[in-house]
Amino acid sequence: DEKPVTEQLVDTLTTLAGGPHAGFRANHAKGIMLEGSFTPSAQAASISKAAHLQKADSPVLVRFSDATGVPNIPDASGNAFPKGIAIRFQLADGTATDIVSISVNGFPAATPEDFLGLLNAVRDSQGSTAKPSPVEQFLGSHPAALKFVTTPKPAPVSFATQPFFGVNAFKFTNAAGQSEYGRYQIIPVAGAQYLSKEAADAAAPDYLMNEIAERVKTQGVQYKILLQIADKGDEVNNATVVWPDSRKTVELGTLTLKSVVADSKAREKTLMFNPLQLTEGIEPSQDPILLARPTAYAVSYGRRLNQ
Ligand code: HEM
């Protein structure tokens, strides 16, 4: 009997990272946690009745991260992309809801099976002399994966200058019962700013983690959370299909980070962000990538707690 695809995904991520690395996430292992608050815009309530979109100043917990399961990956390393942002909104009734996004708009695979195919091809290419290599073969027959790996992923000046994208669509319903599908965009108020190639090559291994910890002491770290709204006929269940920039976007509100969580390392270990931890007014699409994520994250979470 084969293991479930979600567990195989965590196994391959672990192998690719040279793990297991006891106590760390199988992906996005290196990170830092901050806290702050979220205040909705005036039009947010017209999109969804979700509690944090009705009232000001919901407390938020944010974790920024580098890709891969390598706990000490240099922040500017080519493998440390996409960057991640995980946001937990604490709601007045004691529950919470999460947004978990990356620094690339779009995903390399439409299904967990295809994502496993890509990761396994990368794994099988290590030390392989085959021409074309397994990963070259995979990319040759999977245009979305080719597009994702060839998308430029420049090193940001700061996590506070990096835009992030929700990639998976959700269904938003307002108090009048009107529904729309949308994808999150998390846009830095400081503007998108990147290092030159030379500066990235010279960057210290922890430059992003250190920079955000310093910046938050003296400057605002703020993002606008936008929702890109699907037109009729837009693909809502396929994360490889990016919607055109011309689609309507609605500002949902402003995220303001105020400090680093004091015990960031201990807190992140016992915390699992979950893109399907939702609240009334926000529902999942049927995107198979989205629906696979909580299971894969729970496998990784269970292992890190037991290591
Ligand atoms: C089937 C597809 C995917 C798989 C198998 C996968 C796998 C994982 C795993 C195993 C973790 C570690 C979770 C933990 O231990 O707490 C993780 C974390 C993360 N993933 Fe994914 N992922 C997928 C898709 C995505 C997508 C589509 C996005 C964003 C659009 C994303 C963004 C992130 C981020 C930001 C984190 C770090 C969360 C944190 O800071 O705790 N992933 N992923």
UniProtKB/TrEMBL annotation:
EC number: 1.11.1.-
Stretches assigned to the Catalase core domain: 2-307
One annotated GO biological process: hydrogen peroxide catabolic process
Obligatory cofactor(s): heme
SMART domains assigned to the protein according to its UniProt record, in alphabetical order: Catalase (SM01060)
Binding of heme, residues: Y297
Listed SUPFAM superfamilies: Heme-dependent catalase-like
Keyword field: Heme, Iron, Metal-binding, Oxidoreductase, Peroxidase, Signal
Key word Heme present: yes
One GO CC term on file: cytoplasm
Pfam families hit by this protein: Catalase
Active site (UniProt): H28
Family: Belongs to the catalase family.
PANTHER family, per the entry: CATALASE, CATALASE T
Role: Has an organic peroxide-dependent peroxidase activity.
Protein name: Catalase-related peroxidase
Native organism taxonomy: Bacteria, Pseudomonadati, Pseudomonadota, Betaproteobacteria, Nitrosomonadales
